Amino acid sequence: MVKINENFLKLPGGYLFPEIGRRVRAFSAEQPPMPLIRLGIGDVTQPLAPVVIAAMERAVEEMGRKETFRGYCEETCCAYDFLRFAIQRSYKEQGVDIADDEIFVSDGAKTDCGSIGDIFGLDNVVAVCDPVYPVYVDTNAMAGRAGSYDGERWTDLVYLPCTAENGFFPDLPEGGKVPDLIYICSPNNPTGGAATREQLKTWVDYANAHGSVILYDSAYEAFITQPGIPHSIFEVEGAKTCAIEFRSFSKTAGFTGVRCAYTVIPKELERGGARLRDLWNRRQGSKFNGVPYVVQRAAEAVLTPEGQEQTKEAVAYYLNNAKVIKEGLSAAGLTVYGGENAPYIWAQTPGGMGSWDFFDLLLKKACVVTTPGAGFGPSGEGYVRLTAFGDAEETRSAVERIQSVLK
Ligand code: PLP
Q1: CATH number of the domain at 7-47+307-406, out of 3.90.1150.10, 3.30.499.10, 3.40.50.720, 3.40.50.1820?
Q2: Residue 258: which residues within 8 A CB-CB, separation 6 or more?
Q3: pLDDT for 70-93, tens place per residue?
Q4: Is residue 139 predicted with pLDDT exceeding 70?
């Protein structure tokens, strides 16, 4: 009789978004007085840049001719040279030297953040920020690194609280288990904060001192507006011997439905006598056959000067929504964080209200869908997350509606 991976049975069943969906459907069935505005999900809404469309059309045409047709990608790291070198150049422009064979192209940062655990032993201690992007927790739980779920926490994970008191950036652990794998996401989903160089340096030094590895998710780096905030952890001295970086074209260039991302593992990063880059290369070679040629051409187009210009417009559009939400909710008396270097706004609930109660209030009275902070971890209680990925006009109306509910 086959044995299943029983770790899956311990998962609390994708509680957050299904539960939001259930509440929204129930409310919609009651015929709400106004159309719903969704500021809950983290998906983009602006179309692909013209330069990207043109590159895809050209690539499709090439695939239709015998002379230019491409099959499996046989080049280094599952990526065509043209894209690996373009990514390498884009790092260089940010002041970071990366070798092209340290860059692995994939179909998503979610895929890579979720699969990177394959190269690490199951007895590693994993630390996650709290609140956190749920993928890091769930994938470690599936692998059996998280212990059991007690209704609020996983028994074997180290939770690093990110609260208003510590500026939503985790303090180093004091006592207790030393984490081997440390997930850091900056700019952060859900709190909308972005780590400074000094903050990152404390964790880089910690990881180098303890032989830990930082799994650094910078899927939202394109949203950084404040000068001096690092776009890459490799801008921080010492990071190449302790960090892996995940990046994505999803939010930078509207690729959530196109699918392209990349992971950087410096050759200097060694643990247990092995280069982690080589282990990942081996893993990808056995489990992955690369991203479609058409998509890699699209991603290359994003990194051209014209592509950068055009995709920045969409990022600016979302950041303007973020500003509208942040200023509007502050004017309504809420304490609001994030939204300046990230497309997420983290709003404290009024009067100590629970995050699901505030979610319900905004849903029922303003017909606006948000995400309750408690769904991202225990320290998310007392907050809701709003996203800036909506339509500008709808975002403005949502803010006006919330303001009138809070009056
Ligand atoms: N990392 C973070 C922090 C995210 O919020 C998301 C998507 O919402 C992803 C990664 C997923 O990126 P991708 O679309 O490249 O899989």
Answers
A1: 3.90.1150.10
A2: 48, 249, 295, 298
A3: 999 888 777 999 999 999 999 999
A4: yes
